[in-house]
Each structure stands twice: as C-alpha cells, then as structure tokens.
Amino acid sequence: MSGEQMGRKAYEEFKEKLKHLKGVKRKELSKAVGEARDHGDLKENSAYHEAKKDQGLNEAKIRDLEARLENMQVVEDGDINKDQVRLGLTVKLKELKSGDEVEYKVVSELEADIFENKISATSPLGDALLGHKLNEVVEFEAPLGTMKYKILKIS
Predict the structure, then answer these.
(1) How many CA atoms lie within 13 A of 85 on its CB side?
(2) Domain named Transcription elongation factor GreA/GreB N-terminal: which ranges (predicted)?
(3) Spatial separation of the C-alpha atoms in residues 94 and 119, rounded to whole Å
(4) 10-56 tens-digit pLDDT
(5) Which residues contact 65 (CB under 8 A, 6 or more apart)?
(6) What is the pLDDT of residues 89-128, one digit of tens each?
(7) Which of 55, 57, 51, 19 is closest to 36 using CA atoms?
(8) Cβ density class 37-72: b for 16+ within 10 Å, e for less
(9) CATH of 5-75, one of 3.40.50.1820, 1.10.287.180, 1.10.579.10, 2.20.140.10
(10) 46-70 and 26-37 are packed helices; what angle lies between their axes, rounded to 10 degrees?
(11) Where do runs of H (alpha helix) occur along the chain?
(12) Is 5 exposed, middle or buried (0-12, 13-18, 19+ CB in 10 A)?
C-alpha cells in the first residue's frame, strides 16, 4: 500500500469521508446501539446485535481508511502532465476488435468504481495504460483473452 497514489482533490474527499465516519456516523451508530440495548434481553435482541455489527463495520472502515490515507502519496492535481496516461487523467479508448469506444478515469484503488468509469491504476487495463501516449495501442490479458485498445484522447 505504501506506493499507492491519489490526486489532491480525491485525497481531500476521502479525508472528509473519514471525518464523517469518525464523527457523525460513529455517533449515529452509538445511539442505535444504546436504543437497541434498551429493548430488553440482549441474547434475543436482534436489533442490538445488528447495531453492534454495523458499529464494528464502521470501525473497520475507519481503520482501513486511516491506514490507506496515512501511506498515500498525494499527487498535486495541477502537476499532472497530460502527454501520457497517468493517475488522475481520463482516457478515451477504442477497443480494436469491436471498434467500441470507452472512456475511463485512471485512479487509485481506493477511488476505483467501474460504475463511474473509474479504473484502478493497478487493474490490468489501468496498469497497461500507464505511461502510454496518444495513438499508442496497449495490450493486456483479461479473463476473456488478450484485449487491445488504441488511445484516442488523454485529458
């Protein structure tokens, strides 16, 4: 995890998320545990056990996020050179076999969300793209076989 990078804006957003988990969310869950405890016998109190489970999950998220942010290398957003694919940049690609065009933002593992077209720099495609320039073809192994993409735009 020590080599993971993230843009400044995303880093600040995750710091805010951590602040929310440690403040607002922690208080909400503590209150839920207290209210559930008041409902009687804890052995058969499913609301209490569920609230304790949620509280434990929140604490695990806090620990994970703290550890990852502590070791994160922050890349200043304005310092990103757009002559080649780098963390924080958006890349428009053409899949050579089908001709389909897709656009992805290359991000840290922590930010990755395929539903928002954000791919991790450590994913097979993200790793293959890093360092390549406009109009270059990248190739990588995917579960469906070898994939080839041409870089159409870097922004």
Answers:
(1) 30
(2) 6-74
(3) 16
(4) 889 889 999 999 999 999 999 999 988 887 777 778 888 899 999 99
(5) 14, 17, 18, 21
(6) 999 999 999 999 999 999 988 889 999 999 999 999 999 9
(7) 51
(8) eeeeeeeebeebeebbeebeebeeebeebeebbeeb
(9) 1.10.287.180
(10) 160
(11) 8-20, 26-37, 46-70, 124-129
(12) middle
Written as one letter, the residue type at 141 is: E
Task: Find out if CATH 3.40.50.300 is the number for domain 80-154.
Answer: no
pTM of the complete model: 0.62
Which residue has 């499913």 as its token pair? 46
The candidate with the shortest Cα–Cα distance to 118, out of 1, 9, 3, 2, is 9
Strand partners, 94: 101, 150
